Amino acid sequence: MDKDEFLSIGQVSKRSGVASSALRFYEERGLIRSVRAGSGHRQYPRHVLRRIAFVVFAQRVGLSLDEIAAEISKLPEDHTPNGQDWSKLSKTWSLRIEEKIAELHRLKNGLSVCIGCGCLSLLTCKLANPQDKLGRYGSGPLRWMGKPKKQN
Predict the structure, then answer these.
(1) pTM of structure
(2) What GO biological process term is on the record, naming one (predicted)?
(3) CATH of 1-81 given 3.20.20.70, 1.10.1660.10, 3.40.50.300, 3.40.50.2300
């Protein structure tokens, strides 16, 4: 590659909108790669901008960095990912986005229930704390360390 095809970390940060510290972190995680200039500074090939856009978008979809790393490993490293590359990867995100939309609808529908409920308790609310198995028995301490003493 021609040296004009490389960008400094500052240039990549400015063009991608991603902080330099995040770029270094992405590099540590193997999401992007750089080469070192004679001065020891990181130099990134221009096509890294597309990979960074992919990482940022995948994070917005809700993928973890481990999931992103697994997906990004399918992208070509020696050139800018094209529409076909993008299409293959984005199919796996469709389901994730649909799940996110469904969850947001459940939360939205729950808001009207919460407004009318009046419980005002995050401890016993079936919407805010859906895994609370003891909440159906009322509020307060419901488990003891041993059997309760009988009162006379």
Answers:
(1) 0.63
(2) response to oxidative stress
(3) 1.10.1660.10
